[in-house]
Structures are given as C-alpha cells and as structure tokens.
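Chapter review: from sequence to fold.
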Amino acid sequence: MSKAVEEMSRKVISMEEGIRFVGVMDHDGKVLTEATRDGLQLQSKEREVFEIDHHLIRNINSVFDDYLGKVRTMMIIRDKIKQLVFYKNRKIIFVSCEPKMNKDIFFELSESIATSL
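The token string follows.
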C-alpha cells in the first residue's frame, strides 16, 4: 500500500467531524487501508458495505461505461448515513458520514482526493 493512500485517508477523516470512516480498495475489491474517527466503532454492516457492496456497484456501473462514460463519484443518501464513493486511479475510496453532515463537503472531499492520489 502506498504512503499517499494512507495519508489521504488520514487527511479525509480529519476534514469534518461528521466523517466516520474512510476506506480504500483496489479495483479488485482488496482493502488497502481504512481509517475510523477516533472513538467510533463501525458496525459490522458498515464494514460489509465497504468491503462488498461498492465493489459490486462498480462492476454493475461499468456495464454502461461505453454509453455514458465512467462513474467518477457517487453520493448515496440514506436515512441513517451518507456514503460518498470516489473512483480514482483504479482505487475505490469510500467515505461514510453522519446523516446530518452538510452535503457541500462532498465537493471539498472530491478536490482533496483528486489532489492526493
């Protein structure tokens, strides 16, 4: 795992109190690094989402790449959590946030991730 990936994870987790978790996977779904806000414990379902769902979503989305272009980012807003997903340099960056967190942080995160990797 590269030092840039670890540094980016720490930088993102410290950007906003509402960010709970940052995880990075390679294109094949292998977890490269993860960071959790101090004092928080991830529920097993959150970890499952990170490790399985987004890898599957990436594969499903690729079906439309030829027609619509590649997916670069996604924001998933659920009742209990916001999930931000970024695809950069064959990596999947998953950010789990508190539901009340301002959605404008999405753009700040995009810029931070784009310049970090």
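Two observations follow directly from the output. The beta strands are 19-26, 31-36, 73-77, 82-88, 91-97. Residues 13 and 19 are 6 Å apart (CA to CA).
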